[in-house]
Write a structure and sequence with these properties.
Blueprint: E1 2-6, E2 12-16, E3 25-27, H1 32-71, H2 82-105
Antiparallel strand pairs: 1-2, 1-3
Length: 110
Amino acid sequence: MVYVQRDDKGRLLRVEHQPFEGMNDTLAVESEELRDWLKAREEVKARLDSLRSSDLELVRVLEDVVSVLVERGVIRYTDLPEAARVKLDQRAVARAEIEGLSSLLGEDPE
């Protein structure tokens, strides 16, 4: 048996192996409802992980877009908010340091 908290429409919000404050029901471990809830929870987690992974890739894309816009004179680097400039500068320095260290090791940093 597991202890659960349901919303006012009866949907599962939280499932625990031990009683907890706010629980308002129990379910059999073998129940189809619990299996479905756990499966949906894992699917949401997988999709969030995928988004987080693509966020990291998108950061690099946005850095490249800013660089192209500045190089072509579409925007001036100083047009960007100071916080954005600081973050871009920090990432540029970190990337340059990584590239320098990687070249010492004979590795491709990308």
